[in-house]
Design goal:
Oligomer: single chain
Strand content: 25-35%
CATH topology of the largest domain: BirA Bifunctional Protein, domain 2
Largest sheet: 8 strands, mixed
Radius of gyration: 31 Å
CATH architecture of the largest domain: 2-Layer Sandwich
CATH class of the largest domain: Alpha Beta
Amino acid sequence: MKLLAIHADFIEFEAKKKAFKQAEEGIEEGKQKVEECLVIFTAVEKRDEDNMQAVLNRYEQEVTKIAEQVGAKTIVLYPYAHLSSSLSNPAFAQQFLVEAHRTLAENYTVSRAPFGWYKAFNISCKGHALSELSREFGPEETPTLKRVAKDEKFVLHQDELSEEQKVTYSTAALCAAAIMEIYEGAEIGSLGFYHDQSYVDVANVKLRQDDLNRITKKMKELRSQDLVFAKLGNESVEGFQKDIKNDTQGDVYMLGNIKLVPLYQDPFIYSTKEINAMKLLNTSSAYWKNNDTNQQLVRINCIGFTDQQGLQTWKKKQEDAEKRSHVKIGKELGLFVLSDLVGAGLPLLTAKGNIIRREIINYLWELHNVKEHHWVWTPHLAKDALYKTSGHWEKFGDELFKVHGKGDDQFVIKPMNCPHHMQIFDSMSLSYRDMPVRCFEPATIYRDEKSGQLHGLSRVRAITQDDGHTFCRVSQIEQEVSFMVDVIRKFYATIGMSDYCVSFSVRGEDTSKYLGTDEVWETAENALEDAAKNNKLDYKRVEGEAAFYGPKLDFMFNDALGREWQLSTIQCDFLQPERFDLSFMNEESQKERPVVIHRAISGSIERFMSLLIEHFEGKFPLWLNPVQIKLVTVNDSHNEHAYNLAVEMKKKRLRVEVDDRVESIGKKVRDAQMQHVNYILTIGDKEVEKNVLAVRDRKGKVTFDVTTDEFVVRTVKMRDTRVL
């Protein structure tokens, strides 16, 4: 890597003609002028291809350092091949500059001159001691696996809050006012939401759980004063509130003696008198702006209502959620094991738990294989070079599990499946007639999540993704997305979760942060939106929330408790094919770059299982249930007949258990009911003599004199049609 940095009064440039056929498309025509800028003339070299991420890290460090030295806020990246006689592959160089643009744009205003074009330019150098600097480096250094700690900027949400949300958000503000009254030197941070709860972050205080009673008492006192949430508009604020205002440009509000900058438009009720029921729930900690190098604040979660009935209803809902806890039910039903010896975040599925996992995966395969898919398998680790090329090395940083082999190679336990699938596609000799190519792999990936965030099956370190990648042409995006949407709808309708909405994330105004030409992006966005419309999806278009490699559809579902879960996703990706230089031959016998569509239907299988357990409260539909039928015998003389029946039913792949314990028939039935089996078959003298069944369903209804054939045929049909 060679670069020349010029601190300039201005640079003016204009693309004249392509220097080679693969030059960048969709460039801005005419002269472009950037004033008061740092121009980085850049030559990407052949040796840089050995480790793009290491060079990119160093490049960002050097450019940032120079910009800080000269006080530049605007940067122009200018490809300049004349700095080196050993240039990299053009596709690699363009990809490097796009990546550099994206990372630097997080902190600077960045422009990029078009790649692969002859350009005329005029520049005015400022002429001070640091106005002309050069740098040269390569990929020899090993990039750190620690991600650079960066502030997460606050965003002013445009969605209008419901009346219930406004009451709860106002309760957090009332809590903030109470804290400022009680604790000298306290400072209020941000106010936000966590599910249906609100929270306030507070600095310079130490709180115990029993302090919440004191704060609640002060809140009630302030509430009785009928304080108004006054909108001040563009008022000056200090401290944390000033930081929030700088990020959001939002309005300032006053409650009593405190000023607050909320993260939502008009988020408050009129006065505190409207809050007639409230509860402070718990405390935790949070770093300011989600940066662990910043100050750690105390977070207080709360809830508020206009009447006591609202609070009582909420408490009942929480009790129901606790009863449905997947950790509690999973233990009762023997579905999974959490072992300290194995390690946190590494649950072990029992035979029963694995039945549920297997049924989910098999159903997903059945839905996908309507159109030809390749069920592939990839190893659980790979050389670190694979993830450096894909970008996951930097993205996941210290969440990666690293393995050293006996030789010089270093390995990583895979954090994602997509780089492996890229290699499978790259190994094929394909033409446009072979497109699309669809890969399916329910594979386990691994990430070193923080131990404090791990919980049961819902947050783990060993994550099984129902991963899929479709390699297609841009013109095929709509048809492939429509198929994926159809799979999502059928899958969730089967489990009774048809209440959902969709977030359609597209580019924002600053298109320089995204990879790909305007034409390709327009086609991809139109294809996704057309698929959403044609499938009658309830979607909302969200500007600026696309991944930098392409637009996406995220599906949010509500479970039996009304909780929202982001589960399915469909994402168009232009970056991975560029990074791995993927291609197929088109009609003109020219190489054409495919688009990759990432899709996950259930997301993490483990997290999805935790949702299913709580959604059904352990009462799984027949096709999912690990134990579908329980045969209970009245006494030992009936055991042989029961086991013979079990053998015949298992031939039809029904999951059957026999309870031949020396216990009363009442206890056996109650135990079977506690295990939430679908059918309990009582075997006594009459059933043996007449060769019939007494069938008890999950609701307790008993039907006598049912023939075995009749029961098996009906049950198999219910299983195969996946009746709820």
